[in-house]
């Protein structure tokens, strides 16, 4: 497969998985679940509260936002895809425990997509599996800067701020969330500008 097409394919999977889980988490925590997302259920926290597990439901939602954001912005897709494994595992256990019929199959499909990202970055796991590994990576990676990391982090913080805003003004909250996404995507441009100056 052509290198450019391969990269575009992995980026597309990352964005899709990121949107899936980021949107799911935001919808669970937004006021009256007014956030777009295709996977649910948005009422998971309320359902888990019946078993005194409401805080666990909130933890899942916050984790979905964070891990999904790592993937949707594509800046940290490798870390996000590694963290996605226990997230999907936790969600799978909840759905099996509550005897939801179709959800495990959807999660299996999403897990398969996530494994494609991990396979793409398989050479990064060599030092983890073999601590004495001294080989050089052949992969060309984009350099990142501290300022770029900070800009990306500001975008993430705006997502959590938008949740609080949603309980007062839903359109301002949506705008804040969208602005955060743009800011985090802009972090790549910040990297390029910073590296040019060196």
TrEMBL record:
The keyword Ribosomal protein does not apply. Keywords: Membrane, Transmembrane, Transmembrane helix. The keyword Transferase does not apply. The chain crosses the membrane at residues 12-31, 51-71, 78-98, 104-121, 147-165, 171-190. It comes from the Bacteria. This is DoxX protein. The lineage of its organism: Bacteria, Pseudomonadati, Bacteroidota, Cytophagia, Cytophagales.
